[in-house]
Amino acid sequence: MAATAASATTRMTQDPVASEDPHLWLEDVLGDDALAWVRERNAQSRAVLEAWPRFGQTRDQLRAILDSREQIPGVVRRGDWFWNFWRDDKNPRGLWRRTTLEEYRKPQPDWDVVIDLDELARSEDENWVWHGTRCLAPKYERGLIMLSRGGSDAQVVREFDIARREFVADGFVLPEAKSSVDWADEDTIYVATDFGPGSLTDSGYPGIVKRWSRGTPLESAVTMFAGEHTDVAAGMSVDDTPGFERTTFSRSLDFYTSRVWLLDGTDPLGKPLLTLIDKPDDANLAFWRDRVLLELRSDWTIAGTTWPRGSLLAADADAYLRGERAMQALFTPTATRSLAGFGTTKTKVLLNLLDDVAGRIEEVTPTAAGWQHRGVDAPFPGSLSTSELYDAHTPDDPLAEAYFLSYTDFLTPDSLYLAHAGSDARELLKARPHFFDSTGMRVEQKFATSKDGTRVAYFVIWPKGATHDGANPTLLYGYGGFEISLTPSYSGGIGKAWHEHGGVWVYANIRGGGEYGPAWHQAALRENRQRSYDDFIAVAEDLVATKVTSPRHLGIEGGSNGGLLVGAVMTQRPDLFNAVSCQVPLLDMKRYNKLLAGASWMAEYGNPDIPAEWDFISKYSPYQNVHADRRYPAVFFTTSTRDDRVHPGHARKMAARMIEQGHDVLYYENIEGGHGDAADNQQRADVQALQFAFLWQNIGPNGR
Question: Which residues are catalytic?
Fold first, then answer.
């Protein structure tokens, strides 16, 4: 470390910003000094955590669950085939494969393997991680395959001939970048990528969309659309539904607002003719055959009617584009009911609803008399979701009104059903096994009162035999950002490594999430961010007050924005907790907008370069609010070198500062893995085992 410190000192004398932040050198992601520091911290952390007696056993159990061949293979329908990407112990990088519905119904389907990613990685000597594909309808014989090196968001795009099982030698190929692509036709694609200087936004995403013809160099691609450098990104969407074909281009102004243009052809010189679609900037717009659907994030007054935020509206698409505003509501929210998402069959809209954070499904059908609603009789309470099956390119599609329905809760493994609109009868296709013994376990939904009087829901998952004695090892998990909801879910890993050994797990539905619609999210934006932290603290205090646990046995965990959450709460209420598991976090909110994709999140947090906004950000930014003269709970930071979304410098610098101040800190950085912390199941099981070891060592019955 002597050489590292010396190098850092040299840099500080040359860089005025570094003189304010002595750990700035740790932002050099692949710098020799920074990686030497990482490897030293990794070794020290492993020595401590692998000493936990159950470490090896837990890692093996977690790996076995992740690799289990009894997991449900999620599928996407394309014509006659159902496609799946699969990982297990023999295929750690994965198989892209397909089968028929008839085969999928069987306990052990006969899969047709199209790409063996392990073999591809070996033959090309690349650490490929699967990112997905865009297949060309209606034949689905060509795919644009997206591959990441080591799990980063940046990806390589390569055209693949599915019938021949080979990459197209002279096909469409894009070098590594944060690209998005879609087919215009068999010989043309739309491309948003890094086209060189000036083509990316301040957030590091593509700001230009081009139309690229087969057999021509990328440099000759025709610009179809361009956004502004201050946007998050520019994008495109191709709807190839026969009879309703539409291509749109969009500017993501920030994380929650966008503008959309409809392509109306080209002029004689080939210049695109674009029509701006009139909509509220913060509304999500989607076309569904001859209708347009609008999901509102703010109240909208139109034609004398005010529709509340959180509503889903529908209108005739042609009439809407002409400027008419005869809107009808498919859903309006209540104090406890919100829209979690929606899907469609050929003739119906499927509403995925949350009712006090428990899922319900409604089918909505357009009729001459208006939209008719039918509640689906499905398992409750837990998490429900639907997946579309209708393929508009299949003549007389027998699955036109079918959809997949999934259910799970904290103690019930996922089940996948084939459902049919208009009927509550459904066919159980797949079910995950029980990976842990839930006998005697129970789940409670409770409510805490936040600092400003707001009612905050949370779930307590109790292990067998646990009582309100204040001594239960308890992990409080939260996120609280970006309108993301924490809903009931089954985790074999948590069950095996935590519940079976007497651990209580708690999910907090704090503001900033989407559990109660856009208003719940917006209540904790920007200058109101502290409300998320107050909610989380209120849940922790309620757990102590009701003797679910005590500060000695209470830990907190969060990742990404959740890492910022637990980092902020740790600095504000260190007396409430004894362990903090902080994963792929944001922590230096003074510089977050200058690191990787950080500029795209300013609608969520604010702009720290504006003094008035830094004034409220600075009050909770963990990196600026940790001090040597305070006692903090033990903290374990985990991140990934290959994370090109949340910069690993956040966790590196926070750990370095806390170590320098003399606090109890462990740090582990996976050299691969991207924002998900791991590139494959082996790495994922290893990192998870380290995290469980840390928790048991600190909040377990024999912890510190």
Answer: 560, 675
